[in-house]
Amino acid sequence: MASRNRAAASSTFSERFRRVFHDLREQGTKSPARFAVVIFSSLILLFTALFSIPAASAKGLTISLADAFFTAMSTICVTGLTTVNMDTQWSPFGHALVFLGVQIGAMGVLTLASILGLVISKRLGLRAKLMAAGDSNPLRAHGGPVNEGQTVRLGEVGQLLATVALSTLIIEVSLAILLYPLMVIAGVDPWTALWEAPYYAAMSFTNTGFTPNPGGIAPFADDYLFLTVLMIGVFLGSIGFPVIFALAKHVWHVRRWSLHAKLTVITTVILFFAGAAAFLLLEFDNPKTFGSMDAWDTTFQAFFLSAMTRSGGFAVVDIGELNGSSLLVGSMLMFVGGGSASTAGGIKVTTLAVLALAVWSEARGRQTVEAFGRRIPSDVQRVAISVVAWGATIVALSAIIIAQITKAPISHVLFDVISGFATVGLSTGLTQELPDSGVYVLAITMFMGRVGTVTLAAAVAATARSQLYSLPVERPIVG
């Protein structure tokens, strides 16, 4: 009799699980954007609860709800901003939560779900492919037919998902192997380095920037090999999985790269060198940052800072001591961020590239926007404009609210707000001084930045209706 009851209970539980799974799958198929928002929100609430338990704290005490919520948001959104001291606040269990959270957030919930489905079913159906394409290409965040400009073709999604999982594992393991001996040589205990090396590897590739040791990367400020490995990890994480996929297939055949890969790599390199030149010019005589360094140190640290403001989050110099002009340059670099479908945030480098090409085409009087022998369709340009408009609006509103709450210098407020929106993790020191109200505002800003402006807009917008007619044309005066 007892066995029958257990069997009936098991059957009931299985049916409920199937029903819940079926409902989630249907919701994900109808609106991948809303599905992403729901899953991200659920994960953040879950990790907030986990960070709140005494076992996660090094002192065995419960931290405040605001700190737990902000840490969970920063972890899942792979931001790196923090309101607590990361090296002293968390127990080994707490550090493990941080490590796990950034891995989940970096890979993307939809991609992770598709990978699990691929493992279970051994194949991807059309719906799963559409969902995966939605995560790997910003243009698929809204409804409508698959357009000619999408980054990854549906037939390649299965390969892309395998690339995401394998590249994450291989790159992080490789980075950890490179970092371990460098940390031991620098004086870190071999047993401590055994877990700190994978931690740093994960934080660099996911572009998070959390550090597990006192002083962060300050003890390695003169270790250029260590800092170079971190920059390599940040670069690989910021270019995006579609680009990694393209490079893996055609690494020595640039002509066979997709337009997306070309625009991402070229724009990333340009911003890297331009940012370094700007920081070098603006900070070489600042005694609190680069002024006390020799020419080689100044040059290297300028490149390192340029790489980290793209979404890396690590810092050797005190960000709060940068000149106001440098903070503005850093804010601009952070707002752009990294590549689409990457672990970086921001409006994405391809968005900037498309807008720059559109301006150039307009200046030359061309009817279409072209690059590398390809035409960029008008809907891609509209998405780029929407992304910038939404991002600027979110940053402006958040900066106004936090400036009113804290009365802090606007340059510091704007820097930390953009750092949160673009999921960078650099801070002038303002974030740790925020009251609870400011903490929640910045946390929401991080969420909106990580989920993505296009995805967020699609999630809250009503279902689009087809318009079967065209209105008369009238041209307002612009400019």
Automatic annotation (TrEMBL):
Keywords: Cell membrane, Ion transport, Membrane, Transmembrane, Transmembrane helix, Transport. GO terms for biological process: metal ion transport. Pfam families: TrkH. The chain crosses the membrane at residues 33-53, 65-84, 96-120, 160-182, 224-247, 259-282, 332-360, 380-401, 438-462. GO terms for molecular function: monoatomic cation transmembrane transporter activity. This is TrkH family potassium uptake protein. It is a multi-pass membrane protein. It is found in: Cell membrane. The keyword Zinc-finger does not apply. InterPro entries: Cat_transpt. The lineage of its organism: Bacteria, Bacillati, Actinomycetota, Actinomycetes, Micrococcales. It comes from the Bacteria. Its main location: membrane. One of its GO terms (cellular component) is plasma membrane.
